[in-house]
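Good morning C.,

I know you're traveling, so I'll keep this short. The sequence:
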Amino acid sequence: MVATSTLKTKSSECISDLVDRRYDQACIEKELDFWDHCLAEPQRNADVTEDRTCQQLAKMFENCLSRAKKTTLHCSSVLVPEKLTRRIAREVLRLASCEPCGLRGCVLYVHLELEKGCKRLECIVYDATVVPTFELTLVFKQDGTAWPSLRDFLFMGTCFAPTFRQVLKLSPGFRLVKKKLYSSSAGTVIEEC
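The tokens, ready to paste straight into the viewer:
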């Protein structure tokens, strides 16, 4: 069954025609109710899809930080401010919204800004089947106001190498840099949040 905006109501002719073709009437009613709902509230359905995509992106960032904590960051845990990954995901979706392929055409480089420069954590390709049309560079920032715990001082030099940290605390701020790959005149967009 195909839904179009020309179907205004559930006319008895339409339903009887489908019943004559051996469709179950209860199934027909449910289908028509579903499409009536979709046509009546298209923005709400788009919001639900965008929210789901935002949650998936936030989960990707959390997984990236989780993988990087042992391999790249050399720490036992990473403290992430509440809703930081969700805010970043919304910003990424906003920057991807004006692109030809949307988020599917994005290559996302994830970095962490430390005292001594930036450290690359991971490269995320949202859809590997699509040729990238733009790059985003996400830079997490370390919280410089965090005091080391007493436990960090006690363990330093005894059990762990000097480069190993117990806890890394991220700042609520981040930086996104967008670079379009298909247009030489577009330039680079830098957003500090």
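Safe travels,
E.
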